[in-house]
Amino acid sequence: MTKTLKEYQLDERVDTFALLKSVEVRMTQQGKRYMALQLADRSMTIKGMKWDATEAEVSEIKAGKVVHIQAVRQAYQDKPQLKVLSIRLTQVGEPQDPTDFVSAAPMQKQDMAEEVSAIILQITNANWQRIVRYVLNKYHDAFLQFPAAKSNHHAFAGGLAYHTLSIVHLAQAVVKQYEQVNASLLYAAALLHDLGKVIELSGPVATQYTTAGSLIGHIVLVDEEIVLAATELKIDLQSEDMLVLRHTVLAHHGLMEYGSPVRPMIKEANILHQLDELDAGMQSFDNALEQTNPGEFSPRQWALDNRSVYKPENISFNSETD
Amino acid sequence: MTKTLKEYQLDERVDTFALLKSVEVRMTQQGKRYMALQLADRSMTIKGMKWDATEAEVSEIKAGKVVHIQAVRQAYQDKPQLKVLSIRLTQVGEPQDPTDFVSAAPMQKQDMAEEVSAIILQITNANWQRIVRYVLNKYHDAFLQFPAAKSNHHAFAGGLAYHTLSIVHLAQAVVKQYEQVNASLLYAAALLHDLGKVIELSGPVATQYTTAGSLIGHIVLVDEEIVLAATELKIDLQSEDMLVLRHTVLAHHGLMEYGSPVRPMIKEANILHQLDELDAGMQSFDNALEQTNPGEFSPRQWALDNRSVYKPENISFNSETD
Amino acid sequence: MTKTLKEYQLDERVDTFALLKSVEVRMTQQGKRYMALQLADRSMTIKGMKWDATEAEVSEIKAGKVVHIQAVRQAYQDKPQLKVLSIRLTQVGEPQDPTDFVSAAPMQKQDMAEEVSAIILQITNANWQRIVRYVLNKYHDAFLQFPAAKSNHHAFAGGLAYHTLSIVHLAQAVVKQYEQVNASLLYAAALLHDLGKVIELSGPVATQYTTAGSLIGHIVLVDEEIVLAATELKIDLQSEDMLVLRHTVLAHHGLMEYGSPVRPMIKEANILHQLDELDAGMQSFDNALEQTNPGEFSPRQWALDNRSVYKPENISFNSETD
Amino acid sequence: MTKTLKEYQLDERVDTFALLKSVEVRMTQQGKRYMALQLADRSMTIKGMKWDATEAEVSEIKAGKVVHIQAVRQAYQDKPQLKVLSIRLTQVGEPQDPTDFVSAAPMQKQDMAEEVSAIILQITNANWQRIVRYVLNKYHDAFLQFPAAKSNHHAFAGGLAYHTLSIVHLAQAVVKQYEQVNASLLYAAALLHDLGKVIELSGPVATQYTTAGSLIGHIVLVDEEIVLAATELKIDLQSEDMLVLRHTVLAHHGLMEYGSPVRPMIKEANILHQLDELDAGMQSFDNALEQTNPGEFSPRQWALDNRSVYKPENISFNSETD
Amino acid sequence: MTKTLKEYQLDERVDTFALLKSVEVRMTQQGKRYMALQLADRSMTIKGMKWDATEAEVSEIKAGKVVHIQAVRQAYQDKPQLKVLSIRLTQVGEPQDPTDFVSAAPMQKQDMAEEVSAIILQITNANWQRIVRYVLNKYHDAFLQFPAAKSNHHAFAGGLAYHTLSIVHLAQAVVKQYEQVNASLLYAAALLHDLGKVIELSGPVATQYTTAGSLIGHIVLVDEEIVLAATELKIDLQSEDMLVLRHTVLAHHGLMEYGSPVRPMIKEANILHQLDELDAGMQSFDNALEQTNPGEFSPRQWALDNRSVYKPENISFNSETD
Amino acid sequence: MTKTLKEYQLDERVDTFALLKSVEVRMTQQGKRYMALQLADRSMTIKGMKWDATEAEVSEIKAGKVVHIQAVRQAYQDKPQLKVLSIRLTQVGEPQDPTDFVSAAPMQKQDMAEEVSAIILQITNANWQRIVRYVLNKYHDAFLQFPAAKSNHHAFAGGLAYHTLSIVHLAQAVVKQYEQVNASLLYAAALLHDLGKVIELSGPVATQYTTAGSLIGHIVLVDEEIVLAATELKIDLQSEDMLVLRHTVLAHHGLMEYGSPVRPMIKEANILHQLDELDAGMQSFDNALEQTNPGEFSPRQWALDNRSVYKPENISFNSETD
């Protein structure tokens, strides 16, 4: 069985398949052409340098493809890097499906789909349930395949559905603890809140922002989908049901500076915003801690307002305390 | 012919009709009931106090009605105020239409409607022209009657259309001066940019925010209308035409802190934002200067970030320099 | 059985006992002395005016005492107010215990104490468990009696313990959902995080900030208690156990602008901060919604960054969806 | 006829004259000396590298001179760059005037001078007209030659006058549309507002900030010139004419954080500020769009608060709509 | 000898002379005319109410005049207030000079003038010394009489010179402690830094902002004076001496948001800014502590970013520690 | 006698001892291993490059050691740099004490210790004097040896004590000038304010933040020491003496955003904050000016909010003006 990229040691010879996430053809200051690559499998993403790139390589090797590489694992500025000796596209009989090399959510698509269905049943308000069904149905596959971000938190295939379900689970705990919460509204808005990302982002492999994503943003994009659904389903857009659902989704970034056109003015909107922050924070800490040794501080994290975070040495996790 | 409210002098006896903009029944600290009123005609809005309000008055006199008053004009904390001696609803044969007492835009509705039609013809892109026609048609009357704000700039009947036309005029000057501007996009977005106010606000008399206005806001409300129009007209929502039009409208507040979910990333969006600020600034200065004597500073203006503004003594206006 | 203050109607004659929360002796502009009172029982707090206050009343009637009043319920600027006709301290045989008139947490002290004990057992790290026991023991009674704030969220007797338990419950849900969380650290810090309020505030009745509270603040005050406890228990202050516990408590306001001398750099510190915000938000929304009619917006809420919040008309609560 | 720098293709041999905008002598990490150059003609500015720089080259080749180069056009990190093979100063008979290599405003100096004269005639207030004449006369040549900035908007020879005229043109449109504007004040302040840049910047070639520019800034520098002019012309500094003119110029950055010691408190000051922002925005967008392919986003733009901007694919310009 | 205003007790009958700092004629809500007064002597400023003001009183009694009053000392909302029974202008033979009633700096004018002269001699750079002499000479009397502010810190007659000297004294301590400071520059800029206030403010009695003060501000006003002086004295405005002096004065507010058009970029400019803040802070704390009882907190102080400050009970001052 | 590092010229051969402040083993892009070094003696810190580092060198050469080097002085990107030809640890008989190579405060340790003792005697309040003695005694050596920062202001051995004494000296000038200052409190707090740095930082050589420093911060760390001292000395923690001392120390960063959990609410706390800023500003300017030629601007300084600072050409220092 093949080794993963993470398993190779410093100075070890690498001979494997990988997904080419990006490639840039550059010149050295002295004018020689080389290729700067990002290579990935499910264990990690690693930079690679192919010096003295040939014309053929430059024209053939494209981002999003599976490649075969021979290389040596080195380190550059404290980070692992591959000195790529040879690179070629894979052939018939070799791995060719990019999604086999993309890290994925810890749940299976099918399980996530089933759980979503179960939650929809808990939405007792008919209007909200119909809207959620309609919109999730329209984007069923993308919802289960897309990441929740280009990079940072939940940037893996299936990350969108996984992040959505995390929030629904937290929402269920909140509903259990506090009496005065409208569970239907909270679940409906939680299921829809980030769905605009299926239009904002390009897809699960080599994820980029789309033009629609940059010019409109996922918050308004999903609001538009809700409005179109309501029109299709003949639900009155000016009814309170529709106003509070749109508000709860629109306000989920909490602050206007973060792109919500309105601040949360309904209790369920405030809860959704807080749970979104909590779950994003969990993922951002986990990302940071993965790169950090016990007893040390991480590099500064853009997704955490530029904080570094500390990984305690002598700390154990909750399994023991259950 | 009747005097306007503004024409009465200090201590003069007032006997006239007025629109009752608001009424609150209060108690003095000693426990006597009185009515605090806002009365208006086209010349001004003035506070009034009806001491010792009777049960009948309290139950009958409602905001939004035309009333007949007898009063004395006084001043309280440097501001004019009426001591109302008697107040009653008007009867058949007396003025009863509230809109006769509301200040209005300096242009006639009909003239504004015609000018809007002429501008639509200058939108040479068919998609944008059809969208603008469709949406303006749907809200034709409200567009011509609504104010552009609850208070502050353009808070008068017809203010929405008037403010819109001011911006279109400035846009025409910009198009003339700078070569690389897409006039069709700029005019289309200018005509639509504030149209969500016909849903955000309650109407031209005794204007309040609606629930939809507070929970969603006029920026997203008009975006939803554009999306519905495109669907109805079978124009592809993901076409560049539709993306840049929605973007230009969504970004017109310029900053996310001011409620735009995206910042202007298209040149025409940036122009629209700047012209909106320029026209709003003109109105805010005019409002402030109206209350200010030459050679003095106005009270601080909320609409101008709390600035006071100065009214020069020896300054004359542009007629002379033409 | 006596009516509560809330049950009296407008213009009804009031004859009851109440807690005098504050009293100020003032002059009218015309120079007459009167007393402005705040009166409370568990149903509400209401302003009162005692006109023509006598010397005896002024010298005898003090905040924090139970009084007997005769009054008429009126309204002033839309708010209920009592015109107090007579006021006197209660005598033997009449109610005299202020805590009988203070609103209280929805849980009994004894139940809260037991639950806290149960949670302490879930702290499997011996150092943290000993610290928590030591400090909670030292302030046992105050912890169960104090409010969590002077006003705003959880400003009722027992509010401190109740708010603490709410956060522990949410923490338990988080521990259950996410694998990589140190439950012991999270529970220990959650139990201690606001305990400095027993020094910061004056007590459950007529709550004020103490001098120590204003000059030092509850965040540093509890850190000092932890340090003193560790010294007493001979636990090394420089051990990682002690550093991460102090950090988690110190960082719980999340931002330095909100008084935390450090931002959360440990995952459990970030969780505690988020849960603190979530629970405070729940209480602030409930406070706002209590004063609001269905289908209307609340007045602006200081505790919610000056937002008004909306109370939907047609919304039902989670009981139905369980 | 010689090719411009822009016309050379990748890998093409370059043999041409150029202006040397800047030169830095550096070492490679291995300790070899080389020269990093900025070379320009009117078509573009391009980086160049002269490896193995000789002592003679280092001492002779200075910024601001016209040079002859032989080079190869390459690309480094996606940007065009010249590998310079030989470089020498030009000799008699070859081009030697730096201004022949500097990009310039789209209007001729003479035309701009004439238009300025025409506008001065529209200033009907004698004091303002005399001040404007005096100060513009004093800096006549520099006003027509200087750029409006070191880099960013209007950073080309004649840019200062061109930017000034753009604002005057917009001001004329504003005067035409709004009745209550003092045109004389607006034109006078517009003509003077950025004139301090002739002291703040070093000149049209290889533009740098002067010491006076950094320590005082162009806003105060032009205010000082106005004050000196008034003294020379015996116009009372404390007259309202002089106060409002100085205010209008001083306030043109709009906010104190942007270097205006006062915010606009006069209507014409507010207009000037808005028009300045509008014109700067036009230039910043044009700069960004020049580097951007249709259907793509630009790199982030410092001059636009770090936004990227979008260049639509299918958009046409205003010629069609005229 | 007459009692000062401060010496009168609650309910005591007052019969004295005072300066009338301001007067407003108002109506009660019931429509009766009264005068709201601010009366002052050197001991304090106190509000007064003259109910039932006569026509004669209203037309005769003006701010800035010395008046004779008969009144009763009362309290309104915890603050002392006079119920004025009679008020009239003083006559020949009675006190008539307003400055006798204004609180003054703790130093005599003459002493301040002498000390300023002594410091000028310590400015060893001839250009700076000549500029300082010229400008201080031009505004000699105003410099010694004006307050340093309308209200807040140093708002007493002579406050400008006194604040200036405080800063010079601190500057002397800094010069003594740190070797690398240019004392001449620091002293010259310290003497001039706030001198623009003689134009910004109206004078020592009933101090208001002038139009020039509001539209231009004291920072630019004094820079203009320096420029005029240099021109008169034929000192080159572009010399480094003049640039650093102007910079040091212009930058003394430290931040552009506080009205300095440039931030301190010269060491002496930074020192002057810090000392200005230190001295202003001392005065603001003293103002706040004067209104505060030992062991209590002051009301929130606008001049201290809305802080309340604490007055310790058991604290003694530096005399003991000398 | 050996030359210092600063005395070597460009291209000169270097043969000397130095402290190795840091070392990083890196790869060139082509995959060759080299060592990037920071070498220092008391004259300067300089970068060094040891190309083709051997295994032996990599394993032996560690930060914090004294080394012998042979090298050539070069320049890289305008900064001096050593091309290291050979490097080895020093042996017996050669210099081996790192502190001999660290730049130090301009005062001797012994002199600083004596001056601190003298100041302690000026603290006339017994509680404060005992606390200061106790805490300074506990950390006596570290207080005299530690720097005041990792980099930036006072980043030299003994810098902590030196910065502390600078502030005490300024405090003495303030006490002399202003009457109402409690000198004992100010001196006690000044002596303690930065003492937490002996826990926050790792020591005088190769200074890093400790885990305690990052997670708790020096402000709270010293507060904890004060609390422990008071407990040990049986001084009541809730006494006003202890509250105001802790407050004054806790508030010395002035703003919560800068890490003080409370803003200065006591006059002495405000003074300490201002003096801390003044002294830090002096050091930051001196650091910037050391790298700057007369008549030029420094690079932007992180420690001065990213300002560049100007070094005047023709300016002389205060010796002349004394």
From TrEMBL, chains A, B, C, D, E, F:
InterPro entries reported for this sequence: HD/PDEase_dom, HD_domain, YhaM_exoribonuc/phosphodiest
Pfam families on file: HD
SMART domains: HDc
Keyword Transmembrane helix: no
Name used for this protein in its record: 3'-5' exoribonuclease
Keywords: Exonuclease, Hydrolase, Nuclease
Gene Ontology biological-process annotations: rRNA 3'-end processing
